[in-house]
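lol forgot to send this yesterday, sorry. struct tokens for the thing we talked abt
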């Protein structure tokens, strides 16, 4: 048996705010949407890989509390360059959602910054990790 990770699903307070964040900062797009028991379920994916992995968001009143600042659980997105990490950080600072200013750490961590999405989940943008764009 070899299970394949296909999606992550999170309950969110506002599907619209979540769509705006993940399409605006992460380059994801809505690939599927449906009603579900008085709310909405939306699948977000990257245009090149939405047939392999998606991010499912479900509007719900039963969301978890925002993530504690010392809880480093996060979603990770790789970028092509350090300049792209810096650009995301500037946009996030202007939007009031930057939680980790850009920093450089030894391999395999690389150069990264962190944002907080509308529900308080942390999202990392990195360059120089061994996965995805910018991998050495």
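and heres what i got for the seq, position by position
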């Amino acid at each position: 048996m070899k299970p394949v990770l296909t999606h992550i699903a999170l309950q969110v307070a506002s599907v619209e705010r979540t769509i705006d964040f993940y399409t605006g900062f992460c380059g994801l797009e809505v690939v599927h949407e449906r009603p579900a028991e008085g709310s909405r379920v939306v699948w977000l994916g990257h245009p090149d890989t939405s047939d392999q992995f998606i991010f499912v968001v479900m509007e719900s009143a039963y969301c978890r509390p925002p993530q504690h600042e010392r809880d480093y659980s996060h979603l990770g997105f790789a970028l092509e360059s350090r300049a792209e990490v810096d650009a995301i950080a500037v946009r996030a600072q202007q939007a009031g959602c930057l939680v980790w200013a850009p920093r450089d750490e030894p391999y395999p961590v690389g150069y990264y910054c962190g944002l907080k999405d509308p529900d308080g989940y942390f999202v990392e943008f990195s360059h120089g990790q061994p996965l995805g764009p910018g991998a050495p």
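The mean pLDDT is 93. anyway ping me if u want another try
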